[in-house]
Amino acid sequence: MLRTTGDLPELQRAVRELHGVAEAMVRWPDPRGPAELRVVIGPDAEASDTTDEVIQVLERVGGVDLDTLAPTPRTAAERPVFAGLEVQRGELDTRVEVTLRYRGREVRGAAEGLATGDHTPRTAAAATLQALREVVRDDVRMHVEWMSRDGAGGSRDEVCSIAVTVLTLDGQDQHIGSALIRGDLRESAVRATLDAVNRRLGRLIGDAALDEEIARRGLPKG
Questions:
Q1: CA–CA separation, 50 vs 44, rounded Å?
Q2: Cα separation, 163 vs 159, whole angstroms
Q3: H or E element: which one contains 51?
Q4: Are 75 and 47 within 8 A, CB to CB?
Q5: How high is the pLDDT of residue 212?
Q6: Distance, CA of 175 to CA of 164 (rounded, Å)
Q7: Is 70 helix (H, G, I), strand (E, B) or coil?
Q8: Do the domains 8-76 and 79-204 sit in the same CATH topology, yes or no?
Q9: Cα dihedral angle (38, 44, 47, 49), rounded to 10 degrees?
Q10: Residue 40 backbone dihedrals phi, psi, to 5 degrees
Q11: What is the pLDDT of residues 121-180, one digit of tens each?
Q12: Residue 11, pLDDT score
């Protein structure tokens, strides 16, 4: 958490411009409380050097008291990251294929939806969840509940937010992720979906014992 005297949109932009940063997002859910800066370090970046640069920006731009920080570097390679998107548009339907990179390999997922500008980003989010099926346990089911496009902190930046429902043998949860819109709303929808799921990914990765439980209960794997 950050207690800052600086301008949050400017802080967000400054961190995003750092060479080793793949993604950065400032959250401030309670205007009376501290803000949160979430940073994903790129797979080819040196984590320690990039962390030092982020800390310098926090001090210079955000006016953050560095004595209160305890950053934990996390590289993007530890989580699925966006690698590509392909859209095939017909007169009425659109097919979106999303490629993710995870632990040195590529996983792909596809989804179909209405051929409208408003619906295609949500189709991209659904395709992202299909790609993640290659990563998570067989008992995990995921569904895009809603998507929104909003302004960020009074600046000109816009944010895409996605709500994902995750259903497992242990119960149901809903997670919300967001990403800055950088021109292509479809790509932002993919990144927001990953933001929603990646923070819970450790609980969703495959487990042999759970696979046996699925087989015992006769649940489908598709």
A1: 11
A2: 13
A3: helix 47-60
A4: yes
A5: 42
A6: 5
A7: coil
A8: no
A9: -110
A10: -110, 120
A11: 999 999 999 999 998 988 899 999 999 988 755 556 789 999 999 999 888 999 999 998
A12: 78
Digit-coded pLDDT (tens) for 77-94: 468 899 999 999 999 999
Task: Give the pTM.
Answer: 0.60
- For 70, phi then psi, to 5°, come to -140, 70
Alpha-carbon distance values, 165 to 20, 144, 162, 173 (Å): 31, 6, 10, 6
**Average pLDDT of the chain, as a whole number:** 79
Question: Quick one: 8-76 is in which CATH superfamily?
Answer: ANL, C-terminal domain (3.30.300.30)
Cα–Cα distance list, 59 to 5, 51, 52, 133, 136 (Å): 10, 12, 11, 40, 38
Record the tokens describing residue 73, joined without a space.
């570097």
The hierarchical CATH code for the domain 79-204 is 3.30.160.270
Sorted by where each begins, the domain ranges of the chain are 8-76, 79-204
- From start to end of 152-189, where are the E strands? 158-168, 171-180
